[in-house]
Every structure is written in structure tokens, then in C-alpha cells.
Amino acid sequence: MKSLAKRKNSLANPKNQIALFNSGVFANGELPIFKQKVSESNQYPLKPNKLEIFQVNLGYMCNQVCAHCHVDAGPDRKEIMTTETMQLCLNKLKESGATTLDLTGGAPEMNPNFRWFVEEASKIGVKDFIVRSNLTILRANKKYYDLPEFFKKHNIHVVSSLPFYKKGKTDKQRGDGVFDASIEALKELNKVGYGITGTGLKLDLVFNPSGAFLPGNQSELEQEFKKALKEDFNISFNHLFAITNLPISRFLEFLVASENYEDYMDELVDAYNPEAVKNVMCKNTISIDWNGNLYDCDFNQQLNLKVATQGTHLSEFDLDALQKRDIVVSQHCYGCTAGAGSSCQGTISD
Amino acid sequence: MQKTYYDPKDLKDFGKISEWDQELGEKFFEYYGKVFEEGALTAREKSLIALAVSHTVQCAYCIDAYTSDGLKRGLEREEMMEAVHVAAAIKSGATLVHGVQMMKKYDKLSM
Ligand code: SF4
Ligand code: SF4
What we know:
- The structure holds two protein chains of two kinds.
- Chain A is globular and about 55 Å long.
- In chain A, about 35% of the residues lie in helices and about 10% in strands.
- Chain A is an alpha/beta fold.
- In chain B, helix 2 (about 45-55) runs antiparallel to helix 3.
């Protein structure tokens, strides 16, 4: 499998994804557009709360090509953040007073300047320093084998994706061999203390449904994952985040190709929860792409919907203007507000 | 009048049955919700039972609902298919066991 970009699939162009959101069931009135739904509960326009999280996307290169990937990441993607942009991120992070730094990708570890960035960022002393690791990268090449130790040294909070606690579903979504490599990586992380009570080293897992359905109850899934991983592999972790797949990029390609798009959107709209709107990720996050552009979240980044402020690049970072901005929304946002809601931190309302 | 007896969209309107008899409708949904809560059986086990029973009562709405529910709970296709076979075995067994009645009656009436 290759990225949409490599295959020159029409959905590789974010404009075509947005055109899809503005046509069909959302154009003929069968389903309400997101803006309308949010207006019904007097929450439009969506406004940010205090900025807390800098989510930095270090590039779209990845060792995997997961079928559901919202980034359209893969080995064939060459977009990579430079040290200059990383430095700019750190300067603006300090200036902003944000307390969490969240590194994502692709596989952020594949950025050749990843370690430099982590070391420099550690010096600033953010409260929560997250690295989103796909796990297999930790076993992909010898040069990554020491990463668990490196993470530990910098007190990184590791957030890893594991679609299921059994091989079949995991490999179907993420590729052959992914499950075994992930289990190996989790064992290595446990070995240095990650996910083990009392060490203070946090290891959280992310669960995405492998198909056109919403995730089940987060705490029930967490219990099942904990029990199964412990019994079968003696693996421990802290929390499980159940995250809804947003209908964008390769997951959108799957929805359209499998003729699930309309039913899935219908399910998301049906599960709309006005309470969840209060805690969507864009409320306290700024997302930064490999080039230093600013977005309300990583999903908007992939749709090329930049922040609605005059300056949209790190070099023009204006905290005051950002705090006053309207968040840019479209129909994909229904993925964040369905049921108990979903953000990079999993379920967001009880 | 619609051209088919079943419309998948009707499932979403199930709650509307209360509109014609609020008290009984609400009592039913309260009971239904309670039944599926975690108890001596886990919610996951209850979901599998529901899936199996859906097949024996051949309710298209229930099959739709409990297949989706199973996916959400992380049930695997092997588990779901085994549950359906349990249902099918009981249903065919229930048919076949009446053969004993037939045999006895046949023998009694025959010379
Ligand atoms: S989902 Fe994560 S691991 Fe999979 S291709 Fe996308 S970025 Fe890589
Ligand atoms: S997709 Fe982004 S902008 Fe939309 S609700 Fe979710 S976090 Fe906010």
C-alpha cells in the first residue's frame, strides 16, 4: 500500500475532501452541517480556551502505511521538519506559556533531528512532554533500539497506537507483522520502567476502531486490553484512549470505497454530543506542521485549513490573536463530538 | 406505502414507539437498558447472547444492531460466528427433538 499522495488519488488533495463534505447528504439537507449543529447549542463559532498544548508534527514520513491513517503518512512521504523550524517551535512554545509539548508525525522518530529536538525541548522544562510512537519504529532498525532509554532519560510520556490486543485485527489495519513488532516494543518499554507502577514513566495506548464504526466504552476497552496484554504477554500500560476515526484522508478513502461514507457520517451526526464540544482538542491546542504553519488541530492540518488569524505561520505567532480566533470547522469535526467525544486524549466527556 | 417491509432507518426510530403509549414504552426501554448493564455477566457476554438470539428470532434490526455493537466492543468474527452457531444448533436441535414425538405417535398409531 502507498500513500494517497503517491498514488495521485484525488483525495490526496484536501480541497477534494472538503468538497465531499459540502456535497451529497450535507448539501441536500439530509444531514445538518457541523456549523448548524453547533449553533443549535449556542456554541458557534467555536472559541479556544487557554492554550495549553503545542502539538508539533515533525513530518509525514512513517515506516507504516496504516489503512486508516488521517495523515496519509508513509515511507514515500518526504515532508520533514528542519532544525530551524524546530528552534522556532521552541521559542514560541516558551513565549506562549503552553505546558504540554506533543510530538507527532508520521513517525516523529524518523525525523533525523528528532533527538536534537527532544534534548533542546527538555531544557525548557514543559510539564508534559508527549511523543506519539507507532511502536514498530522502535524495532524497525538497530539505530532505534535505544529509544526507550532515550525516552526515559528525558522523562517522555509515550503514547502509542495499538488497534487491538490480538494479532488479526491489528495486522489488518496496520499491516502484516505490526502486532508482533508492537508487542516486542511494548516489552522493551516495560523493561526500562514504562507503564510500570511507581516509576512515573507513562505509557498510554491509543485504540482506533478497525472499520466504519465508533469505538466502544473507553474504560471497558481499557480493562480488556489490560487483562489480555498482561495474561498473554505480561505487558503493562497506564491508560487506553479510545479515539474515533475522523472521516479524512485514507480513512475517508476507505469509507467511500466501501460505500460506508454516508452511513458513517449519519452515525457521527446521530451520536453528536453538545457536551463533548466543550472539550474538543482544538480548544487548548495549536497544531504546527513540518513547515511551521499553524492549525487548530492535526486534522485541520491534514485538510490544509490554517488558523483563522492574520498570521498563519510560527514566525508570525501572535498569542493574543490566536486566543481570540474562531476555530475553523467542517463536517469532519463530527468525529470529535460523537458519543463520549474523542480527542488525542481519548474520551472527553462522561 | 413503502415497497419493502424493512427499512434500516426504522431502527433509529425505535424510541418512537413510546409516543403511542408512553408508560409501557418507557418501562420497556428502562428494562432493556437495565438488562444490558454489566452484572453477573459482562456487557460483552450479554452482547454475544443478544447477537445469537437475534439470529434465532431472525430480527434484521437486532442483527444489524448487535453486529455493530460487537465490533465496538472488539468482539472477533470467530466469537460472533460461534455464537451464531450456538443459536443455530439450539434452533435445529429444538426442531429435531420433536422428531421423538413424531416417532412415538407414529409407532402408537401403527399396527
Ligand atoms: S497511523 Fe500512525 S503509524 Fe500508521 S501510517 Fe499513519 S502515522 Fe504512521
Ligand atoms: S477536527 Fe479539529 S477543529 Fe474540528 S472539532 Fe476536532 S479538534 Fe476541533
